[in-house]
Design brief:
Layout (H helix, E strand, L loop, with lengths): L2 H5 L6 E2 L2 E2 L4 H12 L6 H7 L1 H20 L2 H4 L14 E8 L7 E9 L2 E6 L9 E4 L4 E4 L1 E6 L27 H4 L6 H6 L3 E6 L6 E9 L5 H4 E11 L27 H19 L8 H10 L5 E5 L2 H14 L3 E5 L7 H7 L3 E4 L14 H12 L3 E4 L12 H10 L4 H7 L2 H6 L17 E4 L10 E6 L2 E2 L5 H12 L3
Parallel strand pairs: 3-6, 3-7, 8-9, 11-12, 12-13, 13-14, 14-15
Antiparallel strand pairs: 1-2, 3-4, 4-5, 7-16, 9-10, 10-11, 16-17, 17-18
Helix pairs in contact: 3-4, 9-10, 13-14, 14-15
Length: about 500
């Protein structure tokens, strides 16, 4: 290392704010440069005293810097630039627009400005200076919404330093996925390249995992990505024990919670949150802040729902009964057996997030296509639902969301309902349908242009916008494709 670089505080491999992956040989060379002139051994170091000690400390700091420089956050970050803010009105003309909330409009014009849809229909007068994009033969759809992921929280599952989806402990209602999002994740460009522009990013682990956030897959910072930081409180629903009724409590009218009651702990936390809220309202200065109870207050006030991970019939029935008893909002996540208690879900207006159509039967007695037909069965029974692919992958294959919906169509679900299940329905379930999920005046200009039906694998996404920002649809996948096309070009 040169003295010039040392004076500038610029260790090897770090140049003008850019990081490079450093090998063991680079590290050895860097340390060797510092110690070469004196050829230190352990005995010499011990005799040199304080001066050599400072030198060792410097080498240790250098090693730490090199570890940071080669950390997953820097090495695994994606090179794709976020979209630039919209500078003027843009009109898409000649395409078939699929608003989802209404029938498709052929040969339509969609005008948007400052990130919002301004007009939609035929024969629309365009303001002066409008950029016109002619799209004859193309199709415009609202951004697809993946309703359960760990996007932004997990990069490579086998690399612990890149996994930030779970907090230590069982009770973590104060944990916010929005605070941990990695806007440089290489998975975001890969996912949005297939039209998935929105997602629910949810923590996991413990009994109460924390707060899930609705995110849009483009932005410079975690704040840019976040559409709603508190969309739901994630709870991993316990399986009812033997002797407990499917209605959420032990048999008996007024049986107090016992240590064997799997819901006793959750019920006690909600009770504490109610008392805490009352104490804070009565005496804000006298009641100390408790972050976990503070995070649960919106749940007991029905401002945000509980997202209960529940697949079996006892779990689902227990969750619905608990929500009715505690007077809280509920969303079922998983819902494999939801069709078996459809009337219960309809009566209590409980929506279901189906975690993957592409999954095998859970029980030996189930039909081979039980998962494939679940969306059609829920729709026929009048249950509100949306489709996710998270049962197959919470991150790296979130791009395959439309093909889960396509399989549901092959097994009885109406095609328009399938599109709704991955656009408007999740937006409604998670409370952001006033901004995204469909194409209507006043909503965010978050949509994509395709050459066909997005449920069909050959369809290509040609353009995409998030809040009016035109996206770069290149990703690690396209760069690898281009690299090897170049290799075999000749």
């Amino acid at each position: 290392m040169s003295k010039k670089n040392l004076k500038k505080g610029r260790p090897p491999g770090l140049h003008h704010g850019r990081t490079t992956q450093l090998s063991v040989q680079n590290l050895a060379a860097a340390v060797g440069t510092i110690t070469h002139s004196e050829d230190l051994d352990m005995q010499t170091i011990s005799n040199r005293g304080r001066k050599s000690g400072l030198r060792i400390a410097f080498v240790a700091c250098l090693v730490a810097l090199l570890v940071i420089a080669s950390s997953p956050r820097s090495v695994l970050s994606d090179e794709t630039m976020p979209g630039k803010p919209q500078r003027g009105p843009i009109a898409l003309t000649g395409a078939t627009v699929h608003p989802v909330s209404s029938s498709p409009i052929e040969n339509a014009t969609l005008l948007f400005d400052q990130g919002k849809i301004v007009a939609l229909g035929r024969d629309i007068a365009l303001p002066e200076g409008t950029e016109v994009i002619k799209l004859e033969g193309k199709h415009v759809y609202p951004g697809l919404f993946e309703s359960h992921t760990q996007l932004g929280l997990t990069e490579i599952a086998s690399l612990r330093a890149s996994v930030d989806q779970a907090e230590v402990g069982r009770i973590n209602p104060n944990v916010q996925a929005a605070m941990a999002l990695n806007p440089d994740s290489a998975l975001l460009p890969v996912t949005r390249a297939n039209g998935v522009l929105l997602a629910l990013s949810a923590p996991t682990g413990g009994l109460i995992s924390g707060q899930a956030a609705v995110i849009q897959l483009d932005g410079w910072t975690s704040e840019d990505l976040t559409l709603d930081p508190r969309a739901a409180m994630v709870v991993n629903w316990p399986t009812p024990t033997i002797g407990e009724s499917r209605r959420g409590r032990n048999t008996g009218a007024d049986v107090a919670p016992t240590p064997t009651d799997p819901l006793a702990e959750l019920r006690e936390w909600l009770d504490q949150a109610r008392r805490y809220s009352q104490a804070r309202s009565a005496n804000p200065e006298g009641q100390p802040v408790d972050l976990r109870l503070q995070a649960l207050v919106p749940v007991v006030k029905k401002e945000i729902p509980i997202l209960a991970a529940a697949d079996s019939l006892p779990q689902i029935e227990s969750a619905v009964a608990f929500a009715a008893q505690e007077d809280v909002r509920l969303i079922i996540l998983g819902g494999y057996a939801a069709a078996d208690c459809a009337s219960l879900l309809v009566r209590h207006q409980i929506p279901v997030v189906i975690t993957a159509v592409h999954r095998v039967p859970r029980n030996r007695s189930d039909a081979y296509d039980a998962s494939y037909t679940l969306p059609a069965r829920l729709h026929a029974a009048g249950v509100s639902f949306c489709i996710s692919g998270s049962g197959r992958s919470e991150t790296w294959n979130s791009r395959n969301l439309p093909y889960h919906a396509a399989t549901a169509v092959a097994f009885g679900l109406d095609a328009e309902q399938a599109i709704r299940a991955i656009t408007l329905s999740p937006a409604e379930i998670f409370g952001v349908s006033d901004r995204v999920g469909s194409l209507a005046v006043g909503k965010d200009a978050t949509f994509f242009i395709a050459d066909g039906n997005p449920l069909e694998i050959p369809t290509q996404i040609e353009l995409a916008f998030i809040q009016g920002r035109r996206l770069d649809l290149t990703s690690k996948h396209t760069r690898l494709r281009d690299k090897y096309l170049e290799k075999y070009k000749d």
